[in-house]
Amino acid sequence: MASIARKNLLEDIPRFLVAQAGILFAVSLVTIQTGLQYGFARSSTQLIDQSRADIWVSSKNMQHLGLTIPIPYEQVSKARKVKGVDKAEAVIIDGGLWHELATDQITSITIVGADPQGILFNRSNIVEGRLNDLKQSFRFMVDKTNLNSLHLKRLGEVGEINNTPAKLVGFTQGTQSIVFGTLIFTSLETANTYKNYGTQTTTAPNNVGSSAKKPVSTDQISFVLIRAKRGQNIGKLKQDLEVALPDTRAYTREEMSKITQDFWQVRSGIGFILGLGAVVGVVVGAVVVSQILYASVTDHIKEFGTLKAMGASDWFIYNVIIEQAIWMAILGYIPGMALCVGVAAWTSTTQGIVILITPLSAVIVFGITVLMCVSSAVFAIQKVTRVDPAIVFKG
User: How far apart are CA 120 and CA 187, in angstroms?
Assistant: First the structure.
């Protein structure tokens, strides 16, 4: 049975290659679209997931990480007085405008300001430079994949953020977010200056960190990050924080991550669009496979009639076609998945865009591919079902 299936499959090489191209396209589209969906969700919460905060405190109106109402800086002092709090830090996340002076190009950015030695920044993400460098005024770090968007090439280059001097002192890796665009990491004080007083600063960029306008005290922040004392009940600490800090909500790191991912995947409609692309891939692959199998059965209809005349059961013939479909699935899946893994590695390295392909997702895509091909075989099986063994004796 298996030899008949393979013989039918490889008898017409051009037709076989067309079928495999269709399956490869379907596998690639499904894998990349679902990988983008998972990677998109993960990249939207990288700041949250990579932090060492147990609790994120935000405005009660917060919709996701990038959409919230500022809260007073005084909330940090109040949080530190709550029993069970080991550490409380302020974080500023705000939009801004980068101005590259040499080319006079501007780019929208997202400013992320916090204590360089605090619980938001993760040292393992630093590939060049030191976090301590951010303690100096108007220093920043950026993911290496964003250098082109900022028109920068090396450490030490300068520009302006919101008309305020800015000097590049470090590179990060694995911190790029598709949702929030180019992330600029800096200290809380510098971020506050960029956010509130940038348009008032006219100091020349070559004086960054020396005679530039000194950052002032922070008055409005985006979040308060909390690290709980060891053994503290996180649920109770959340309640105590919400009581002590009026008009705020407290979320665990996992809750904050889920809220942000749900917003972008469900409420924004992006998840639906990416999922629709995966469905299109399956439909296209199914159509190509069904047409190839149907044509193959039509070309060998007399051979199938001969098998039936010799006493072969319908199930034997059905299994030949299904075997052929499974071989097509396997031979199309392997190069398709290899291509996707290569594309995912390339986009992550050069663009900072995560196409997340996990062993589980690879297995699921393989199952979808086999199901697609076997389902397509149904059309070919229907033709064999109606074949008359007497066709062997006809001219």
Answer: 11
Instruction: Please list the alpha-helical segments (H only) found in 310-395.
Output: 314-350, 359-385
Cα–Cα distance for residue pair 71/62, rounded to 1 Å? 11
pLDDT tens digit sequence for 301-321: 666 667 666 766 767 777 877
Instruction: Measure the N-to-C terminal CA separation of the chain; round to a whole number of Å.
Output: 27
How deeply is 268 buried, as exposed, middle or buried, from its count of CB atoms within 10 A (0-12, 13-18, 19+)?
middle
Listed in sequence order, the DSSP H helices in the chain are 2-10, 13-43, 46-50, 74-80, 147-150, 188-196, 234-244, 253-262, 270-299, 301-309, 314-350, 359-385
**Residue that has been written with the tokens 């008309």 in this structure:** 163
Asked whether 256 and 67 are in contact (CB, 8 A), the reply is no
What is the amino acid identity at position 306? T
* Rounded Cα gap, residues 73 and 76, in angstroms: 6
Tell me, what DSSP letter sits at residue 181?
B
**80-133 pLDDT, tens per residue?**
999 999 999 999 999 999 998 888 889 999 999 999 999 998 888 888 889 889
